[in-house]
Amino acid sequence: MEPLDIGGIAPTLRGEWKERALTGRKQPAGGGIDRSDKSLRLHGSIARDLGIAIVTGLYPPGHVLSSEVDFAERNNISRTAYREAIRILAAKGLVESRPKAGTKITDPSRWHILDPDVLAWTFEGEPSPEAIRDLFELRLIIEPAAAERAATRRSGAQLAQMGHALEEMARHTLASPLGQAADQNFHTTLLKATGNNALISLASTISAAVRWTTIYKQRKRKLPRDPLPEHRLLFDAVADGDGPAARAAMQHLIELALADINPQPAGAI
């Protein structure tokens, strides 16, 4: 089967990096979920476009990508740029290259799905129901237990940080980047308040999951529900040192967030 042309998947993005390759022009700032990639070098932009195509299912597992010679000639870019892009994808578990067999898309079980780039690429398109389910299951397994521990171990400074994050969420709302950043800070601080280094090591992962599910919720709903009351209940339980109440509040908060995206009982995920 003839490999798909990336131009048929993301012509606007592909056009940007192709023009940059021909003219040296920097990628313009623009819209989209996250345009921090505007400063990426050429191979990073190619990796991003291919990564989005892979994680959104446009390149299925087992699909053989174009050879570097064919891809480079078809898109008027250097073979080195394509080769470096493939190395990025291989490091994230999305592809594997073998002599004479070419570069194939790997099974999703091998993907580093919690890698920040892979998460971002997943939510650039329409994430699968399985991807949404997996992230919320991860949160439901980790965060309620973490909240219970944090309620009895948090410091005064950490409680103040969580309180400040709540104020910022109220001031900016979760529809804004500043409000979303405050939401991430709230959840990150709570994990740090557990005093458990193993849990703390998951802070960046949980923060990224919170960020992208929040962005997705805002994108899907014209009038998103305000989650601030549930965050305040959680904060109050942590402030009171009530571990069981904190666990229950976090469980309820996550279940409501899931219902915002996929209105069915949490047990159905």
TrEMBL record:
**Which UniProt keywords are present, listed alphabetically?**
DNA-binding, Transcription, Transcription regulation
Whose protein is this, by species? Answer: Novosphingobium piscinae
Domain HTH gntR-type per the UniProt entry, residue ranges: 40-108
For this entry, the protein name equals FadR family transcriptional regulator
Single GO molecular function: DNA-binding transcription factor activity
The record's section on Pfam families has: FCD, GntR
Question: What InterPro entries does the record tag this protein with?
Answer: GntR_C (IPR011711), TF_FadR/GntR_C (IPR008920), Tscrpt_reg_HTH_GntR (IPR000524), WH-like_DNA-bd_sf (IPR036388), WH_DNA-bd_sf (IPR036390)
Q: Quote the PROSITE patterns the UniProt record gives.
A: HTH_GNTR
